[in-house]
Amino acid sequence: MAASPGRRRRWEREQARLKASVVEEDTEEWQKDARFAGLERVGGVDLSYIKGDDSRACASLVVLSFPALEVLYQDCRMVAVSAPYVAGFLAFREVPFLVEAVQRLQQEEPQLQPQVLLVDGNGLLHPRGFGTACHLGVLTDLPCIGVAKNLLQVDGLVRDELHREQVRSLQRSGETFPLTGTSGKVLGMVLRSCNNSSKPLYVSVGHRVSLDTAVRLVRACCRFRIPEPIRQADIRSREYLRKQPCAPLEGLEALPAGPERWVCGQKGLCSWNELQ
After folding, report:
1. Of 28, 46, 77, 131, which has the fewest Cβ atoms less than 10 A away?
2. Is 87 helix (H, G, I), strand (E, B) or coil?
3. Rounded distance, CA 11 to CA 7, Å?
4. Where are the beta strands (DSSP E) in the chain?
5. How many CA atoms lie within 13 A of 219 on its CB side?
6. pTM assigned to the model
7. 24: which residues sit within 8 A by CB, 6+ positions away?
8. Which regions of the chain are under pLDDT 50?
9. Alpha-carbon distances, residue 47 vs 58, 80, 96, 204, 227 (angstroms)
10. Helix 5-19 crosses helix 132-140 at what angle (to 10 degrees)?
11. CB 97 within 8 A of CB 80
12. Cβ contacts of residue 84 below 8 Å, gap of 6+?
C-alpha cells in the first residue's frame, strides 16, 4: 500500500511541526556525570513483524536496570499496522504503538519509567532531520537516542570506499568518527560498540540528549554489538511472535494473542533467563 501525495504532504508538515520541539542537548543531571550517576533505568523499543504479513506486528517495550542491564519490565502485544511503509516516514507507521506502550507503563508502573529510550533507528540522521528517535522522544518527552545498524544516506553521506575505510579504521570498542554532511552539520557518530564485531553502529540524537552523551551511553549499554535495551526488545518481540497461533511454533506451545507484560519480582518471572 502506497501513501498518497496528500498523505505525504501532511506527514511532512507534521514532522516539521514536531521538529521544532527537538532538544539537541543534555537536560538531565545524570547525563552530565562521567559514569551516569543517577541513571537507573534504560528503555528499549522494537516492532517485529510476522513473516509475510506486514500488517501484524508485536510492539515491545523493555526497561533494563543500569548499569547491570537486567530486565525489570517488558510489555509485548500484537498490533494491527495500517499506515504504509514510506522511506523517511517510518515513525507514522510504528511510533503510535510505542507511545501507547510508554503511556501504559507510566500509568501502571510509573516507578519503572525509563529515564532514556534507545530506538532501533535514526534521530537527526534523517532526510528532514526528524527520524523515529526524534518523533518518539518529542511525543513522550523522554530523552531518546537513535541507534541504527546501517548508514542512512542523507546530506551527501554515502557508503563509498572512503566510508568503508573509515569503518575499517575503528579497531577497538569505543572508537568513533563523526558523520558530517555536505551541509557541514554533524548528523551522528559511527561507533564500534564491541571488540567482537567490526560492524559499527550509527548513533544520532533523538531528543533531550547531546551526541557525545548518546554515544557514551550506547557504548555503556553494549554487551554485544547491539545495545542491550534494543537487543532485549527485539529478542522478546520475536519470541512473543513465535508463540502466536498464526506463527510457526517451532515446538513452542501456542499462547493467546493478548498482551504479555510482567515486572521483575512478579509472577515468579524474575529468574526467567531463557531470552538473555
Report:
1. 28
2. coil
3. 6
4. 41-50, 53-65, 71-80, 117-120, 144-148, 176-180, 186-191, 201-207, 260-263
5. 21
6. 0.89
7. 124, 205, 210, 211
8. 247-258, 264-276
9. 6, 11, 11, 20, 16
10. 60
11. no
12. 1, 2, 3, 93
Please give the Cα distance from 213 to 12 (Å, whole number). Answer: 29
| Residue indicated by cell numbers 506502550 | 101
Partner residues linked to 102 by β-bridges: none
SS3 state at 185 = coil
Model pLDDT, residue 4: 86
For 267, residues 6+ apart whose C-beta sits below 8 A from its C-beta are none
Cell 559514569, residue? 35
DSSP string, 250-263: TTPPP--SS-EEEE
Angle of CA points 81, 118, 146, to nearest 5°: 85
Q: Taking the CB of residue 274, how many other CB atoms lie within 10 A of it?
A: 6
- Phi/psi for 39 (5° steps) reads -85, 120
pLDDT for 1: 63
- Note the pLDDT of residue 276: 30
Which pLDDT value is given to residue 263?
57
Alpha-carbon distances, residue 266 vs 4, 41, 94, 263, 276 (angstroms): 46, 18, 29, 6, 18
